[in-house]
Every structure is written in structure tokens, then in C-alpha cells.
Amino acid sequence: xxxLLQQDPLAFALAFSALLLSLGLHEWAHAYAAxxxxxxxxxRWGRLTPxxxxxxxxxxxxLLLLAGFGWAKPVPVNPGAFRRYRLGLFVVSIAGIAINLxxxxxxxxxxxxxxxxxxxxxxxTFRGETKTFTGVLALGLFFASSLNxxxxxxxxxxxxxxxxxxxxxxxxxxxxxxxxxRLEQYAWLSFLLILTVLRxxxxxxxxxxxxxxxxxxxxxxxxHALFEPxxxxxxxxxxxxxxxxxxxxxxxxxxxxxxxxxGLGVLFGEERAWKLGLLVLGVAALRLLLGGGLL
Length: 295
Known about the structure:
The protein folds into 2 domains: 2-244, no CATH class; 248-295. The protein has helices at residues 2-7, 9-36, 41-44, 58-66, 85-117, 119-127, 133-156, 163-171, 177-182, 187-195, 199-217, 254-267, 271-289. The longest helix is centred in the middle third of the chain and has 33 residues, at 85-117. The protein has 13 helices and no strands. Helices cover 64% and strands 0% of the residues. The two termini are 30 Å apart. Helix 5 (85-117) packs across helix 6 (119-127), helix 7 crosses helix 11 and helix 12 (254-267) runs antiparallel to helix 13 (271-289). By secondary structure, the protein is an all-alpha fold.
């Protein structure tokens, strides 16, 4: 993100605004899911709002800008108030991740659409050779998409107090729950490890996720230069980039619609809706693993 500020302040402002909105929506999703499962705690603490100013954590936001990963202020919840403890803990924990993943997909779709409209303008802006309105907009949206992907993958890590640890906890035996909740008091140790020993491995995981997401899922091969150590600056291309074919664009809606359907189905108790959403996600994932991508 700091490199983006140096390259184009307007693109940085766009990406940073999208980041603040994404953090707010992430925590609002946790709060809303907890409220739907019968816990009034988020509303009592004034967290049942997408306003990012109620959710920002100063250290987590700074780390997102400097280190490429970070967090927002956790929403206070009382799992004991959930009508269904296991399901409630799982849905509340994964709600923010689902929001960030859906935003990453939506923003990546916009980047690809802008690339289809002005291939050379977007590429030359990304390479730092020249600036076009389309290119600057695509650059800001790309970083916003990348940050949402980072938030989703980072929060999936099973490290207390990240969301991934709660997802794992919801699947473990009830007899383990008291011990697992006691681990929360050592959250400071987890953050210390994340900032020191685990920082390198975590960045490797996040870099791999970005490469798969942008190169394999969305077939934006020309973005590979962004994952090299110093990606800001001119880079040669062996041949002119080809805009994506619009014939497969409808298929790109599979993942966000499936996530939306599954999420709404769980929140509103529609079993058929969330099962269908998970089935569609499974088919899309299988097709991706078999090398077909989403096109």
C-alpha cells in the first residue's frame, strides 16, 4: 500500500477508502450474525453498524498498510447466548470472512471489466509508464480486492483470537470449549508471534493466495509482475495483453452469488438455500482444481 501511495495518490485514496469500508463490513457481519443468533451484546456495545470508525483498530490498520496483513477491533459477543451454540459460533466466525471474500471477488470483477475496456491503459498504469483514468481506477480497485483477499485468508488462520480459531473451535468437542476459551487471554502472545516468528510464513501464504486468486481464478496473467519483490515501475511485456472474452463473464458470478445465498440461508434459517450455496461453491472449487478455472 505504501508503494501505491508513492506511485499514485489517487489510487491509494480509492484503495484505502475501500479498505476502511471493508473492515467495517467485516465486523458488522460478525455483529449482525451474533444478533441473529440471539446475542444482544453487539447492539449493546454499539457495534451493530457498518460504520468503520466504530470497528477500526489502530495497530491492525497500520499493519495492513505497512506489512500487508492486519485486523479490526473484535466485536464483543457472548456465545452462551446463541440459540444454537455450535452453529452460531461457526456462522458468526465465518461471516466476516465471507464478506471480505465476496468483496474481493466483486472488486476483481471490476478490475477485469476495466481491463476489457482499456487493456493498454490499465497495463501501462500498472507498469508506472503513464496514467489513464481507467488505469488508476483499476489500480485502486486491484489493491482493494487484494486487501480484502488478505483479510479473508489471514482471518482463516487457526490462531487465537483470529476467526479461524473460532471456526475450528465450533467443530471440536464441547468438553474442550472451556480450555479453548481460556486461550483467549493469551491473545497478546499470538499477536507477538504474528509480528515476529510467523510474519514470514504468513506473508508466503498470503502471496500464494493472491497469485492463485488473480492468475488462476480470474486469468489476469499480466498481473504476475505485481507479485515480484519490486513490482512498482516499468516492465516489458513479450506481447500485447488480450482483453478477456465476455463469453464467460456470467460464470464469474457463481462464487459471490453462492456465498450470498449460503450466508443468507444460514442467517435466516433456510436450510435448502445454504446447502445449495455450498453445493455450487463445491462444484466451482472442483472445476478450478481440475484446471477449468471459472470460465
